[in-house]
Amino acid sequence: MIWLESKLYCKVQYLERTNTGMLKIVSFKGFNFDKVPEEVNK
After folding, report:
1. Which of 37, 12, 10 is closest to 22 using CA atoms?
2. Are the C-beta atoms of 29 and 11 separated by less than 8 Å?
3. What keywords are assigned to this protein (predicted)?
4. Exposed/middle/buried for 14, CB within 10 Å: 0-12, 13-18, 19+?
5. What span, in angstroms and rounded, lies between the C-alpha atoms of 31 and 29?
6. Contact 10/23 with Cβ under 8 angstroms?
7. If DSSP codes are grouped into helix, strand and coil, which group holds residue 18?
8. Distance separating alpha carbons of residues 6 and 32, to the nearest angstrom
9. Going along the chain, which residue ranges are E strands?
């Protein structure tokens, strides 16, 4: 088994978060190729 580290980031829009932190009613807005891992947050 080989594990990979994700290097693609995207923009999403969501209506709300659940009590467990999951996103509800999510819409994909596009990829974000100009970010480095240190600049990306939840």
Report:
1. 12
2. yes
3. Ligase
4. exposed
5. 7
6. no
7. coil
8. 13
9. 10-17, 23-31
> In Å, how far from its chain's centre is CA 41?
8
CA dihedral of 2, 21, 23, 29, whole degrees rounded to 10: -70
Using DSSP's 3-state secondary structure scheme, residue 7 falls into coil
Structure tokens at 35: 């970010």
The string of pLDDT tens digits covering residues 1-42 is 888 777 788 899 999 999 999 999 999 999 988 877 777 776
Whether 31 contacts 25, CB under 8 Å: no
What residue spans define the domains of the chain?
10-39
